[in-house]
Amino acid sequence: MTGPLSHAPFRWLLAARTTAIVGNSVAPIALAFAVLDLTGSAADLGLVVAARSIANVAMLLFGGVLADRLPRGAVLVGSSLAAAATQGTIAALVLTGTAGIPILIALSVVNGAVSAVSLPAAAALVPDTVPASLLRPANALLRLGLNGGSIAGASVGAVVVAAVGPGWGLAIDAAAFAVAAILFTRLRLPQRSDAADPGATASVWTELREGWREFASRRWIWIVVLQFAVLNAAFVGATTVLGPLVADETFGRGGWGLVVAAQTAGLALGAVIALRWHPRRALGLGVAGMASVALPVAVLAVQPTLALLVVAFGVGGVAIELFAIAWDQSLQTQVPREALSRVYSYDMVGSFVAVPLGEILVGPLAHELGAPPVLLGCAAVIVVATVFAGCSRSVWRVRTT
């Protein structure tokens, strides 16, 4: 743990990203209740949330190009300030009672676009802050900070929204991004030898094609991204749509909160394990371990008791985190620095693009067939996708030590 922390740039990166995630974890709770206080309509809330998601996916590729063209630290400062401005505006509108659904949708679009710029830059910045030998513990510490920040932010958000209202929760989010921007300015990084020439005339499309070549030329990358396009659609659809439905019919809503907390605790435990365990073929093991994510989905279908679900979701959280850390380390060591942000952006688009499809399909299917068969189908899809990726020799050839 102390290895990465001995490097000042990494300490500032860790502090900035953890601060931002604390605020970002308050925002969904505060925004949800702000919209419900405004109109009481779940459909309106869906429009506001979907606007951000669509803008985020639509802008990710451009965000990757921007992060490879410009100094990544400067990109993160700018995107944090823009996020602070949009969230501060939403907070002011809510607090003054002048918010409306159209303006909230518009600001959510801007916020989603800003996030799309910051995500590839933040992920690609890690190799600039520590030596290559410390990438695995550095990524583990970052993930530990993000998970801890998420827990703290969600807890603070719930208390603030209940005590003083959603507008103040959104104000906390804006303040967190402003503080993160200040922390990002403290990053002192060596001049990137791979940075794009400011006078270069290459178009965005040219740079996107170059990024695609880096992405597509590595078989292990696109195979894993294909795995997660399918896996994420099945897992997110099963847990976010059908999970609460099953909870309502069996062990209750309060128990579902405990189940979600168990997964978060599993994520934190996975990061702690990754700090000490450095297998040579961490990526292959991480990919294969994602089969265990089918376990909580299957338990929801077959035996939805609170104790079993807490254990199953905790195990799934450990597997997710071990994969995520190995994936980041693999990309950061195998992809050229000058294209890393663009490869990350292709990864994110491919991994998330099918999630809305899964969320849309599972509801009607459960209405026709019942929730248990659909959940078992989602579990089977997760296993099949994992077997497909796990059988690829290219995945197992990637060495992370």
Supply the key terms.
2 domains, mainly alpha, globular, 401 residues, 17 helices
| CATH-assigned homologous superfamily of the largest domain | MFS general substrate transporter like domains
Task: Could you tell me the CATH topology label of the largest domain.
Answer: Growth Hormone, Chain: A
Largest sheet: none
Oligomer: single chain
Please characterize this protein's 3D structure:
The structure is a single chain. The protein is mostly helical. The chain folds into 2 domains: 2-132 and 150-186, Growth Hormone, Chain: A (Up-down Bundle), CATH 1.20.1250.20; 211-397, Growth Hormone, Chain: A. Helix content is 82%, strand content 0%. It has 17 helices and no strands. It has helices at 2-5, 8-39, 42-69, 72-95, 101-125, 135-164, 166-185, 204-216, 219-249, 253-276, 282-289, 294-302, 306-334, 340-352, 355-369, 371-390, 393-397. Helix 2 runs antiparallel to helix 3 (42-69). The radius of gyration is 21 Å and the shape is globular. The two termini are 17 Å apart. The model has no long low-confidence stretch (mean pLDDT 86). The chain crosses the membrane at residues 12-35, 47-67, 167-184, 220-242, 254-275, 282-301, 307-327, 348-367, 373-396. GO terms for molecular function: transmembrane transporter activity.
